[in-house]
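Q: Convert this sequence to C-alpha cells.
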Amino acid sequence: MAVVKENMYPKKILQYMEGYLVSKTLFAACELGVFDLLQDSQRPLATAQVAQALDSSEDGMDRLLSACAGLELLTTQHTTDGQVLYSNTEMSSMFLTKSSPRSLYHSIDYNSNTMYLCWHYLTNAVREGKNQYERAFGVNSKDLFEAVYRSDEEMVKFMRLMNSIWNICGRDVVTAFDLSPFKSIYDLGGCSGALARQCVQIYPDCTVTIFDLPKVVHMSREHFLSDDRISFHEGDFFKDSLPEADLYILARILHDWTDERNVELLTKIHQSCNPGGGVLLVEALLSEDNSGPLTTQLYSLNMLVQTEGRERKGSEYAALLTKAGFTTVHVHKTGKIYDSILALK
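A:
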C-alpha cells in the first residue's frame, strides 16, 4: 500500500507543476476567439476552417483544439474522410463565449493579461510581503487603485471582471440574508453595478446607490449601467463622508486592505448607518482551522501579489466589525465561492 501511495506522488506534483499549461490553454482559446467562432458557426468546424477564420497557423490551431477537447471544453466528431470536427460543450457555450449573459470571458481576459503577470513575481511577493505592480507593470502602488486603474483600458477590464463575477455569483450573496427591510442601500465600491442590479431585481422596494470613484462612475454610466432604479454617488470612501443609509454593501472590498484600513472604513460606516441598519460583507471565507478552501487560499496569495490585503476567516471579519462598533454579526456560508456576513448596528 505504501508503494502504491508513493507512486501517486510524482503524478500529483506534476499536475500542480503543470497547472499553468491548463490555464494558458484556456486563456489562449478565449483570446483567439475559438469559442465565439464555434458558437456563431452553429455547426461543427474542422481545424483548417477554425485556423483560417481566426488567422492562425493550422498546426498551432490543431494542437490548441485538441488540448481543449482533452480539457472537455470542446467536443469532437470524426468524419468518414478522417477529419475531426469541433464544437463547444454546453459549459463553454455558457461561460466562455462573449455573447452569453453568464460569460466569464472578461474574467479570463483579466486573469490572463493582468493577474497572470503579477503572479510571475509571486516569489518576490512572498519575500517582500507586498504587491508586485511595480515589477509587473512599472507603476507605483502607493495608491492601490491608481495602480489597478492605471489606464482607462485597465479600468474597463477590471470592471468587466467584476461584472462577470456578480452576473453569476451575485444572486447567491444578496439572498443569503433577507435584505428587504433595508430600504436605502449604498453599494460602496459598486464598480460596474452588476451587484446593484441583482439587488433591485430581488428587492424592488429598495433604492440602491453605487458609491465609487468619479472615473469609475463615469465608466459605469458609459459602458455598463442604464437602470433608472440605480443612482450614483461619486467619492472616495476612505476620504469622503458617507451618506446615511439603512445598509452598506462591501462586496470584495475588505480583502483588498489591511486590518487597520478596514476598521477605519467600517467605523465610518457604523457612524453613518441609520439605527437598525447594517453592513453586508461579501467575501471568500477561509475555514476557521485554516484547512481551506483551496480556492480561497489561492485567492489570498492573489491578494498578496495584487493588493494590500488578504482573505480572512469569518471570525476575523467579525472581530473587525465588532471593533468598528457593530454589535450583532451573522456569518452565512453559501457553499459556493463567495460568502456573506451581515452586521447590524
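The two ends are 57 Å apart (CA to CA).
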